[in-house]
Design brief:
By secondary structure, the chain is mainly α. It has 23 helices and two strands. It holds the Pfam family MFS_1.
């Protein structure tokens, strides 16, 4: 062996390795962005899709609903498969599935074809997104670098929906609804080429190490039924036999999954994960934050497009300050904030900013001036999510052992998507119900609509306040340890 070989990596090689890691992060975030953007990018195009493919009004909801069912329902299983078969393999497979199904959706000639394509898209999105956090914490073991990388993923998570709303309006107006889906094809192919080259291969622990297929079937069914129940509430009502029946079925399946995990030799969700206070608190906070964020996005678009009279393009532009601020903070500032003040303090400050922004939106008047009545709230909410979400994700992933990082990542994303679906449905139903009540009481259409949206924003602020209380009371020192280092075995140890 030569002296050069025994001396270790040269500075040039180390620099090349650094560049490759950051390039790999870009590929991972591109995959996540495609998955999250596709939750909302199609919404603005729905009226045109209905006309072209002959959807009924109730059937149209499944263009979004089918995607959410598959996406949220299959995240946990996909995360575990990443641990067993290798996270790169699952991510690349998901990218292939997502890209191919996007082409199918863009070429859809009937309503059933589009619905089927959206379900497969959701499957691909789940496979890509479930393993991302696990891959990030493996790539970046340095505390500050990991915080920066997680901040990038936090930006994608928090801003993807707003970006999708803006992009959907612009693309539909310029090129038609087919282009909303076809756009994913070249992006997906480019990402696939770089993913194969840049992402490190890993063997995984093998199916024999944790292939709890019964548990996987139970939790996937429970989540799918739960998401289906939530997204159909607006049509059938909360107290209907449909909602109560399917809601009860989802809870029974979830209870059966818990029973199975306590007895399985190789459980899908090892209960040791739930002994980590940081992971539990982070997932609670993520669930509540996602509910407020998804609800904020849809209610804000309805507010702008409805009583305030914005067009599709202008509504998308009006939403842009939020993702812009999220990006500026999560990509450039969040790592320094976490390093200086600790996870817990950053989370609490961010949640306070979000709640303040939502409360400002409860006071939007009928003659609202954007710069005075809307923009300040958009900036506060962007600053809050940009700082809080990366800190929440870092807290949740800190205590996960390397062999469980894919599962922990899948759990976090499952909780986020499920919280988002519930928040979206609850807040839109509350807004609609309040509007109908005000109309019955003699209010004008614009005033009634504003009253409905004001209630939705107030409830969203209360949800954020609940997240604040959970972190403040339950977080303790685990969520406040901002300085952590990785030991030689890959596990994270507190440096204090």
């Amino acid at each position: 062996m030569t002296e050069a070989e025994t001396a270790g990596p040269t500075p040039a090689r180390a620099q090349t390795g650094d560049r490759k890691r950051w390039a790999a992060l870009v590929v991972l975030c591109a995959g996540a962005l495609m998955a999250i953007v596709d939750e909302t990018i199609v919404n603005v195009a729905l009226p045109v899709i209905r006309r072209d493919l002959g959807f009924t009004q109730s059937g149209l909801a499944w263009v979004t609903g089918t995607y959410l069912v598959a996406y949220a329902g299959l995240l946990l299983l996909s995360g575990r498969l990443g641990d067993l078969l290798g996270r790169k393999r699952i991510f690349v497979s998901g990218l292939v599935v997502f890209t191919a199904s996007s082409a199918l959706c863009g070429a859809a000639w009937t309503a059933p074809v589009l619905i089927a394509g959206r379900f497969v898209q959701g499957l691909g999105a789940a496979m890509m997104t479930a393993v991302l956090l696990g891959m990030i914490v493996t790539l970046f073991t340095d505390t500050r670098e990991r915080a920066t990388a997680i901040g990038a993923f936090g930006f994608v998570q928090a801003a993807g929906g707003s970006i999708g709303t803006f992009a959907g309006g612009m693309i539909t107006e310029v090129a038609g609804w087919h282009a909303v889906f076809f756009l994913n094809v070249p992006i997906g192919l480019i990402a696939l080429a770089f993913a194969v080259r840049l992402l490190a291969s890993e063997r995984g622990t093998g199916l024999a190490a944790g292939a709890d297929f019964i548990g996987a079937a139970l939790v996937t069914a429970a989540l799918m039924v739960g998401i289906y129940t939530v997204i159909t509430v607006e049509d059938v009502g909360w107290a209907s036999a449909h909602t109560l029946g399917f809601g009860a079925l989802s809870l029974v399946l979830l209870a059966a999954f818990g029973w199975r995990e306590r007895r399985a030799a190789q459980p899908l969700l090892p209960l040791r994960l739930l002994r980590s206070r940081g992971l539990v608190v982070a997932n609670v906070a993520a669930f509540l934050m996602a509910g407020s964020m998804f609800g904020f996005m849809i209610v804000s678009v309805l507010l702008l497009r409805g009583p305030l009279g914005y067009g599709a393009r202008d509504a998308g532009l009006a939403m842009l300050p939020t993702p812009a601020v999220i990006g500026a903070i999560s990509l450039g500032l969040s790592a320094r904030l976490i390093g200086r003040f600790g996870h817990r303090s950053v989370i609490l400050a961010g949640l306070a900013l979000i709640a303040a922004g939502l409360l400002l939106l409860t006071r939007v008047p009928a003659d609202a001036a954007y710069a005075l009545d809307i923009l300040p709230a958009m900036l506060l909410i962007g600053a809050g999510f940009g700082s809080a979400l990366p800190a929440v994700m870092a807290t949740g992933m800190t205590d996960a052992a390397p062999e469980d990082s894919g599962l922990a990542s899948g759990l976090f994303n499952t909780v986020t998507q499920f919280g988002g679906a519930i928040g979206l449905s609850v807040l839109t139903v509350l807004a609609a119900t309040r509007t109908e009540t005000l109309l019955t009481g003699g209010s004008g259409e614009r005033e009634a609509a504003l009253g409905g949206y004001a209630l939705a924003y107030a409830v969203a602020a209360a949800v954020v306040a609940a997240a604040f209380a959970a972190v403040a009371v339950l977080g303790g020192r685990v969520a406040d340890s901002g300085e952590r280092v990785a030991d030689s075995g890959g596990r994270v140890a507190d440096s204090r």
